Each structure stands twice: as C-alpha cells, then as structure tokens.
Amino acid sequence: MFLTTDLLSVARQHAGDPAGWPVAPRFDSVERWYHRIAATPEHEVWLLTWLPGQHTDLHDHGGASGGFTVVSGTLTEETVHRGALKGRPLAPGAGRRFGPRYVHRVSNLGTEPAISVHCYAPELTSMTRYDLTDGTLRVAEVARAGVAW
Questions:
Q1: What stretches in the chain show pLDDT beneath 50?
Q2: HSE-CB of 14 using CA atoms within 13 angstroms
Q3: Structure pTM?
C-alpha cells in the first residue's frame, strides 16, 4: 500500500482540536482507556489516556502504519535496539511516525496523567504482542479487533 497521508499530521490535527472529539477523555485506574474518535476509508484515529504506571506490552499494529502525538503529560516509547529496550521520553507536542513492521511499547512513567492521539492506516484489525527474551522478540499473542478491543 502506498501511503500518501502523513499519519502524524492527522494525529496532531485531532490532538489540537479537543472540542471536536466526540467523547471527553476518561481515566481508568484499572487499565488504559481508549476510544476511536474518527475514521475515514484511509485511516482511523484513537484517543488514549494513561495514568502513571499504565503501559502497553511490546506490540506491532498488524501491518498498519501509524503516527501518534502526546497531548498532555509525558509518555515513554521503548523500541528494541540491538536486543535491548531503548526508551525515549515524549513530552506534549512530541510525536512519532512508524511503518507497518514497527514494534514498540508505550508507558506513562511519570507522575501525571497523560493523553495521546494515535492514527493508523489502514484501520487496525490485529495487533501482535511480543516478549523480549534473550534479546529476541517472540510472539506472545495475536489480538484481533472486535475481540480484544
């Protein structure tokens, strides 16, 4: 698929217009909260909230490309580099673009709640979760849309 849309720019457009979000962000003490806030034939946009200590597992996006931006708070994105996790803090306004084979983990390691906006193309139909064992990524689970989220 040849992607002509800058998914990080789309995420930033939605992040910059909270009045246009169809729902208000919510924070859940048990798990990260997320809600799809927009969808077109080309992409979908999700709003996520993160309380301190909440995180994803290492995961990919089932062949989708994407972009995400931090609206408030600070998130840390970790990727595998030379068999180990390497983290990068992302403050409000910071973002990341990624391709269809990208694997990462996102966490709120700070003391304040965080909000982020994520854009994917095509829409998410699956996500593979991974374990990092002895420097090697190993598939732990394949989650399917409509079942896992």
A1: 1-2
A2: 29
A3: 0.94
